[in-house]
Specification:
Radius of gyration: 13 Å
Oligomer: single chain
Order of helices and strands: HHHHH
Largest sheet: none
CATH class: Mainly Alpha
CATH topology: Serine Threonine Protein Phosphatase 5, Tetratricopeptide repeat
Shape: flat
CATH superfamily: Tetratricopeptide repeat domain
Strand content: under 5%
Number of strands: 0
Structural class: mainly alpha
């Protein structure tokens, strides 16, 4: 199994953990994908939501900052969805920073 397949499997398992109200286990899987710089939105979006729900603003901001870094790289490659996803994460990051204040 290649790296991308492992990451996709973690996202699927994370969804299942979330459905069964085991957000801590889901968060661990999503964190692993973020650490490996997964190039899709799922782990960043879901983890930011989990942390926001738990009132963990610092962690939410950290995850969104990671997403901005990754999608900045993706946008530079010319991938068609890169710029729109980058903008979406920048907006979420701005809102999270405002909420922290």
């Amino acid at each position: 199994m290649n790296r991308h397949d492992k990451q996709t499997l973690r996202n699927i398992q994370g969804k299942e953990f979330e459905k069964s109200k085991q957000s801590e286990k889901a968060a661990l899987l999503y964190e692993e994908n973020i650490k490996e710089e997964f190039d899709g939105t799922h782990p960043y979006e879901r983890l930011a939501i989990i942390y926001k729900r738990e009132g963990r603003l610092e962690d939410e901001i950290r995850v969104l900052e990671s997403a901005v870094v990754i999608f900045t790289k993706i946008a530079k490659t010319g991938r068609t969805d890169g710029i729109s996803k980058l903008q979406k994460f920048k907006t979420k990051l701005e809102k999270a920073r405002e909420a922290k204040l």
